[in-house]
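Hello forum,

I keep getting stuck at the same step: I have a sequence, I want structure tokens, and every attempt I make locally crashes halfway through. Rather than fight my setup again tonight, could one of you with a working pipeline run this one for me? It's a single chain of 220 residues.
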Amino acid sequence: MTLVLRFALSGFLLSTFACADAPATGTPPMTTPTSSSMPATAAATETATLGGGCFWCIEAVYERIQGVADAASGYAGGQSKDPTYDEVCSGTTGHAEVVQLRFDPKVTSYREILEIFFAMHDPTTPDRQGADVGSQYRSIILTHSPEQKATAEGLIRELTEEKLFDDPIVTQVAPFEVFYPAEISHQDYYARNPNAGYCRVVISPKIAKLKKTFAAKLKN
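Reply #2:
Ran it on my machine without issues. Output:
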């Protein structure tokens, strides 16, 4: 266990402000992924798909990490095809809000991606992150290879053995199947709406913690 991760896990920033209560406003980005899985533009890149509460938070975190080429908010882990935000929020599709990112493992390893993941959300609350409640907000790691699965399970085992959390880790580890990009209004949400209530109350403190804890891994 790295000292950085141990320090990061000393406390969590929870809020009573729910993601679903915040309107998807702001100027939409020019483009958004349209395929079921983001294509890698270089053989050296790797894909990770993670869910840890509202996807606006996770996306904002990884967009700042060295080696991450792109990050997209979307839905995965459910049964229905091409779900909408409202359908996912209803809890009937089985999907989780996730972020799929393409990264260079030579710059930031998959293990480091996961260390940031566990530091930036609470993996001990089933189907919940703060005021965001529902199965769509569950903690989930969707693995793209046997190696990713082994890394994820190994890190969870380490965190459990070292008792860095008061409660058991409930993060689901499952094989990746398909990723459905979220609506364009949800892409780059924090970048476009930094002064929105949810962003100020929930996301900005996470970014402040990220800057303090993982300064060496941040993009310039």
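The chain is about 30% helix and 20% strand. If your local run keeps crashing, start a new thread with the error log.
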